[in-house]
Amino acid sequence: MKTVEITSGVHWVGVKDWDRKIFDALIPLPHGTSYNAYLVMGSEKTALIDTVNPGFEGELEDKINEIMDVADIDYIVMNHAEPDHSGAIPYLLERNEKAVLVATKKGADIARAYYDVPEDRVMVVKDGDEVSLGGRTLRFIEAPWLHWPETMFTYLVEDRILFTCDFFGTHLARGFYDDGVPDILTHAQRYFGEIMMPFSAMARKALQKIGELEIEMIAPSHGPVYRNPRRIIEAYKGWSNGKTREKVLIAYVSMYGTNEGMIKELATRLTAEGIEVVVYNLVNLDIGEIAKDLVDSRAIVLAAPTVLGGAHPLAVYAAYLVKALRPPAEYAVLIGSHGWHGRSNDALLEVLGGVNLELLGTLDVHARPRRGDYNELLRLTNLLIKKVRGDEND
Ligand SMILES: Cc1cc2nc3c(=O)[nH]c(=O)nc-3n(C[C@H](O)[C@H](O)[C@H](O)COP(=O)(O)O)c2cc1C
């Protein structure tokens, strides 16, 4: 893909990484991703906003050189220091002897630590600082902890374009503008769950800050550019406020079908009652999908057998994810099983210690479910339905 001029004098010079399968050695990328970098041309100066993942430096350079000599860039703005956006900085600073790196104070510290950027090539900016490019102004907006401590946004004042790096991002190689990707909000929700959900309070602060701006376009550094910024801003407001739905996320693992039988029963009953249910077998785990559904689920059910005196390791992992991602769910149910000594629920509760979830109950099946287990499951299911619907007084 060549460069794209998103508005006169503002060029996308990023990279589409169609082939990438995994992010942060953790999150599957079923649709690849992109590393968006933008060249902003003023009448006197030029700025590059964000760069690309290591390994794509040459492609970035070629794209910049289609428009101008890379050696003539004046500012390299680093909205975020994570290597997928800043990995090309050392390469660019070698190719260009005059450009300075623009970053927050924390960003500058991180750039020095990761990339040995010399002191005299860093320009530290703080909230509200502006840099004139000639007829165009870059304004820097500190937006820390989205999702590292140093993050900021850059606002192109005259064109009303907000460059937000990871915030509002999607892991999509396909599509260039949001209006060309009908299911963009699903991908954005997945990305929010994976990356931003643990920092929802900081996301709310950032949204409040940018609420004062006129925004015509949002240009994140992963995925499509938003020409309709309202829709994604409203979606982010809901997600970061922890707005949940009448929805239950069920994650289970089952070696010989005991837990599977229980959660099938549970899921069928919930569905028949009109409650939205998503069921994940942890054996085929795509944690991005779970993260997406954790964003708006009101309750979580984990089901797992006892293995080697604890819970099945995949369920331990799922419980750890719930703890780490800090979803807004209010209720939990744990289902377990054992052959001779039940331990799985206790082991999961240990992992979930400190998580703000009301435990509606646990069920522990010995070997295979019997009438008493099904009765208890029904009782728990009915309680879950009431809680998820908010029928507290029934
Ligand atoms: C590899 C393996 C390890 C197990 N370890 C334990 C254990 O430590 N304690 C126990 O009570 N049962 C243990 N079990 C028995 C299972 O917990 C029991 O069969 C359970 O009902 C399986 O539920 P599932 O079919 O949903 O996986 C083990 C089973 C297997 C296959």
TrEMBL record:
Gene3D superfamilies named among the record's database cross-references: 3.40.50.360, Ribonuclease Z/Hydroxyacylglutathione hydrolase-like
Keyword Hydrolase belongs to the record: yes
Short name of any one Pfam family annotated for the protein: ODP
Gene Ontology MF terms in the entry: electron transfer activity; FMN binding; hydrolase activity; metal ion binding; oxidoreductase activity
Domain Flavodoxin-like: 248-385
Domain of life: Archaea
Annotated keywords: Hydrolase
Hydrolase as UniProt keyword: yes
PANTHER family to which the protein is assigned, alphabetical: ANAEROBIC NITRIC OXIDE REDUCTASE FLAVORUBREDOXIN (PTHR43717)
Protein name: MBL fold hydrolase
Naturally occurring in which organism (per UniProt): Thermococcus peptonophilus
